[in-house]
Amino acid sequence: MTKSPNPEIIVTELDDELVLLNPRTQAMFTLNGTGKIIWQHLGTHTAEEIALKITETFEIDLATAKKDTFDLLESLEKSGLLV
Amino acid sequence: MTDVKLVGMTDVSLTEFDFKLLGRRIFGSASVGAVALLQRLFDFPSHADALETRWTVQVAQVQNVIPKLENSYLAAVHNGSVEIANLESSTFIKLEDNAVQLELEGSGAKLTLYGSSQGLSACLMVGMIEAIRASGILPMHTSIAAKNGIGTAFTGESGRGKTTTLIHSIKAGFLPICEDFAWLEPNSLEVFGCDRGLRCLPDTLERVKRFFPDVQPIAFEVDKHLVPFEQLALRAWHCRLERLWTLERDLTKPTRLEVLPAAQCVMALYGATGVPLTAQTRALSSLQMASLAKRLEIRRLHIGNTVLPF
User: Which residues of A touch B76 (CB under 8 A)?
Assistant: First the structure.
């Protein structure tokens, strides 16, 4: 299972992206459509399961989806957006 | 207003107060200094009943010891930073030996003030803004000018030109709504200014005098002057906000307006309204920002070496 979204993060949902605001650092992040799917399944799915969901939504192969997922998870973790 | 002295509080003389801001009743008792701050920042008779709500903000001052705060963080405010700690049912805003405890209930907020030295002012200002934000309206740290009842907000970090852009807009026939702070009703987009004029440091005052040579500024602090809006144009206290321009300076290029992607519009909105501090206001704000990003015309104004687009 992946880590969960940090409950302190302020999430603003736009049509096809998310804006994340960390109130502690006041840093803001944007997630595109792929990132939005990853964020919405954090804490309830494994990285592999999330990658599979990405392939169901976007025309992208599983290997690329897995790499995107792991890369974003690492970036989210480093930015204090996961717990 | 009544002066009272509470049993056991031999050192702090409390003053009772009771006024309204945009329908929100703000009342309680606090030190003379705290009440003066509340009245200066939040008591605008022209706005008292401009909106309808049953929201109340009750303020009480105590001499209790501030509880130990864990997992706190520093939040930037106007002239520095305050310590924020979210406890189970309340939020503490602390600076030095002063703190404000904010508790949100169904139809109101309660602010408990700890301490009475200068640091309390910053805590009280932040606490009040959060207490009122929780009622559904949004604080806006912007200058705003209006023409034909339609407002444009100018936002950006300190020194980016909020006041200067406001001065240019007034000279171009806009009416001043505020120089620094306003409240936005996010459903109707009605915005209410909360400044009595331009607060000018010497360099700003010189710029004002270049455009409006007849102004008679009022000295109010060391090196600071107030130029009442009435000396510059007809006073307009509120308008419908339709545009928000976030300001950047680059004097090597022509002035231009840039359309922003939706995510950057949200960022500009948070820049203008500040970061909400409580779980309740965070949930509310994220919905408000998504809606406002679609309904407001949000642009980046690159202030360059050509005239402003008024």
Answer: 26
- Measured in angstroms, the CA of B176 and the nearest CA of chain A are apart by 30
In terms of C-beta distances under 8 Å and separation of at least 24 residues, what long-range contacts does B193-196 make, across chains too? B193/B144, B193/B236, B193/B237, B193/B238, B194/B41, B194/B42, B194/B44, B194/B47, B195/B229, B196/B226, B196/B228, B196/B229
CA B211 vs CA A35, B167, B169, B236, B293: distances in Å = 50, 8, 11, 20, 34
| Other beta carbons less than 10 A from residue B136's beta carbon | 16
Largest CA distance in chain A: 37
Indicate which of A19, A26, A36 best probes the interface with B, i.e. most B CBs within 10 Å of its own CB: A19
Contact B282 A24 (CB under 8 A): no
**In chain A, what residues touch B275 (CB-CB under 8 Å)?**
10, 21, 23, 26
Question: What tens digit of pLDDT does each residue of B233-258 get?
Answer: 998 999 999 999 999 999 999 999 99
CA distance B184 to B239: 10
Determine the distance in angstroms separating the CA of A23 from the nearest CA of chain B, rounded to an integer: 6
What count of residues does chain B have?
A: 310
Sort out which chain B residues have CB atoms less than 8 A from A28's CB and list them: 266-267, 270
What is the ipTM for the molecules in this complex? 0.88
Give the contacts of B145 (CB within 8 A, at least 6 positions apart): B151, B152, B154, B166, B169, B170, B174, B175, B176, B177
- Report the gap between the CA of B267 and the closest CA in chain A (Å): 7
pTM here? 0.92
Helix B119-133 and helix B32-42, axial crossing angle in degrees, nearest 10: 50
